[in-house]
From TrEMBL:
GO terms for molecular function: DNA binding; DNA-binding transcription factor activity. InterPro entries: LysR-type_TF, LysR_HTH_N, LysR_subst-bd, WH-like_DNA-bd_sf, WH_DNA-bd_sf, YidZ_PBP2. This is Transcriptional regulator, LysR family. Belongs to the LysR transcriptional regulatory family. It holds the Pfam family HTH_1. Gene3D superfamilies: Periplasmic binding protein-like II, Winged helix-like DNA-binding domain superfamily/Winged helix DNA-binding domain. Residues 12-69 form the HTH lysR-type domain. Keywords: DNA-binding, Transcription, Transcription regulation. It comes from Chondromyces apiculatus DSM 436.
Amino acid sequence: MTTINSAKLATIDLNLLVAFDALFTERHVTRAAARMGLTQSAMSHALRRLRVLFDDPLFARVPRGILPTERAVELSVAVRRILADVERTVSDGARFEPERAERTFTLVASDYASMILLPPLVRHLAQSAPGIAISVRAGLQNWAVPLEEGRVDLVIGIFDSELPSAYRQQILQERFVCVVRADHPEVGDELTLEQFVRLPHALISPRGISIGGYVDDELARLNLRRRVVITVPHFLVAPHVVAGTDVILTVAERIALQLADKLGLRIVKPPLDIPGFQLNQYWHERQHHDPGHTWLREQIAQVCREA
């Protein structure tokens, strides 16, 4: 049986092997060209290159087309095996079987995203993809750099900056509520605007900025200003501060619902219209068509829809 040695294989344009297989199957240059979507002259050129490569005429012209030489018949077995191996390799790479896959995905996630997303995502993966692991890095303001360099797979959060080479998908829409401790001496089931401005506030600010953002922008529109007495960087810390003090915290509703009963907090409607926000996931264009990456994005979107 004729084989193609590795040294010669390294010099072969894979398209030439595809052309050889088309010629061998069709036994006609024009039909082989049509099969590959080439012009007849392009296929004739490929045949000339094949003859030089294998030092054999390969196909002899006859009135109704071409006939393979003995050398071509011998080569056909090896060529088809090579093409089949390539197709199988490409097909395997295009499939992602979550129940069998073993892979670690690295995420950059904000504090809020981690609290809302990770518990249900981990439960979901444990059932559907036990070999998948998630490594989470804290939310970074310069998240675009590790994403572009391939050091992280996904960025999940509320970020203003954009990256031209990144895709963005909204995965969750959120709104704000206010929380106070259940036995707050002044705030009952309703919070007035006068109370909101007069009473002390806690503020969550990952960058440590004690003014600005959704709430303060809306107050400024009304020519009002609140009194922030404590600024913390994490969503998990602030509700604990509220539970032991008389401060008001304006926070994402899903966070409030998670912690209200556990910490003895009362959820009340803000006395002013505060615009909500959307949680997005970002990924680099190089991973847009990666089957495993696509699967993970779909799982995250599904988990958020159910959150």
